[in-house]
Amino acid sequence: MFGSVAVIRESGVNSLRVGDIYYVGHLPWFERIWFALSNHPILLAIFAAIRIVLLAWVLWRMLRIISRRRLSLDDE
């Protein structure tokens, strides 16, 4: 069930939205973006994939820097 009114009949349950939608409360900036993109799942998937690729690239660079430092210490 969702919306303002739920009508229960023998044939089933119907949920209806009556009036304008309004929101109460505060969302952090990242949840606001997530909420705005929830109506566009393809964009959400694209942004998630880009974020994963960027995170993987940063981790790869960090591990590469760490390994170079470790190997240069062994040479000395």
UniProtKB/TrEMBL annotation:
Protein localization? Cell membrane
Alphabetically sorted, this entry's keywords are: Cell membrane, Membrane, Transmembrane, Transmembrane helix
The protein's predominant localisation is membrane
State the membrane topology.
Single-pass membrane protein
The residues that cross the membrane are: 42-60
What's the protein called, per UniProt?
Uncharacterized protein
The organism of origin for this protein: Mesorhizobium captivum
